[in-house]
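Task: fold both queries, return tokens.
Query 1:
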Amino acid sequence: MYFTPHGLEQATRREVADHRARRVVPGHVADVCCGIGGDFLALARTGCTVDAFDTDPLTAAVARANADALGLGDKVTVRTADAATIDPSGYDALFADPARRTSRGRTFDPMSYSPPWPTVLDLVARAKTACLKVAPGIPYEYIPDGAEAEWVSYKGEVKEVALWINDGRAGEGNGLTENDGEGRIHRRATLLPGGQTLTPTGAQATTGPVARYVYEPDGAAIRAHLVAEVADLVQGHLPDPMIAYITSDAAVDTPWASRYEVHTTLPFSLKRLRATLREREIGNVVIKKRGSAIDITRLHNDLRLSGDKSAVIILTRIMDKPSVLICTPSRPA
């Protein structure tokens, strides 16, 4: 019996893990935070042999059972051990997915990971090559110099960032780097299941008025600081230099952004927005926001909608002024 999340979540995790594993050159890999084995199973499927470790004996037993159940027991050895006690220097590659939950719930602070970030970096320093699987919101200052940070989105939802360190292909096709104030890193965004990738091109986003369409970039491109590259793809510019919405008169189909046709742009006013929606008989709305502190649930209730038409409402800032765009999804060009 294979112990893992079921249905769509299972399929999603496997596709993301398989994508990451395909980049690891087959060899002897140490998985020092293996959990129940989803990542080492992906590595084994690509031809790697894996020594997997977890601090919890029960978790390690489940991981071992999963490897055996899927016929990969000959490629995987599972042991109970603390990651800090592992010597990665004898392996071809190190893989680490430090736990991001504490007794108080999910943590976004790498110093609170288990093992904590300094321990992870010590392991990396002794490894030939390494891949670290971390939360998409990791602050740039925690990313080691020279690493490639690959933000991965699956069907529009950002799932993780993989940090590739001393990897022969890190930064491949990506000669530009992001200076984060501490060092330089390579950036990449990847879309699954299609496998499209985006890297810095040197594009510089300009600002200007709201045009016929507004584009919402995929979260992986936003996290990787590649909004200017998406703007270049759709021949667009930013309504506000600090907000990751793009506007353009061109209808460009791209997997890197969702496109909406703009019908009205207003300074934000509840009274005026409610009157405009009522006048247009809009009774069903999807509310999106970026750069706005407005509570979406409360706004939806306050609008007191009625009518049989639909719209997308985008709450944002335009040149630092609270604004609202009333839109509809744009059909493929």
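Query 1 returned. Query 2:
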Amino acid sequence: MIACLDVDYRTELTVAVCVLFRAWTDSAEASHLVDRGPPAEPYEPGQFYRRELPHLLRVLAQVQEPLQAIIVDGYVWLGEERPGLGAHLYEALCRAVPVIGVAKTAFHSTGSAVPVLRGQSLRPLFVTAIGMETQAAADHVRRMHGNSRIPTMLSRVDRLCRGYFTVQPPT
């Protein structure tokens, strides 16, 4: 299984979603998991991972099948020897599952990111990885289903995360 993760923050709670799929080219999810957790920690410059990591770990704890890779919205590396959310997640999982970061905007010090053009878009996605070669990760992202810039599974996890509040209001 491959997992795409995302987190959405609200004042009263945080929602983390994990979309699971079997192959890089899948057009539909195999399943998805949702974790409703406490409000996220306040944002600290340079410490973004502290805000998302606990929520990602909680939703991943629900996964019953072995994972081939995990995709996060953001960077694995923020620069040379400077870990981002993906690197912190990889360490928290005892380096057991490769983590791929897919970012929509360039970060000034991520020279190791591989730009990936998809569909007709002239704006690349920026792919970083840990636990696998970055070029291999970029090739996987390039092959993911969908004709638009953002792969189908990444759009799906984003919609589920954001839509959770309109579909199932917190109790």
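Both queries returned. Flag for query 2: Strands lie at 2-9, 14-21, 31-37, 69-73, 77-79, 82-83, 99-103, 114-116, 125-130.
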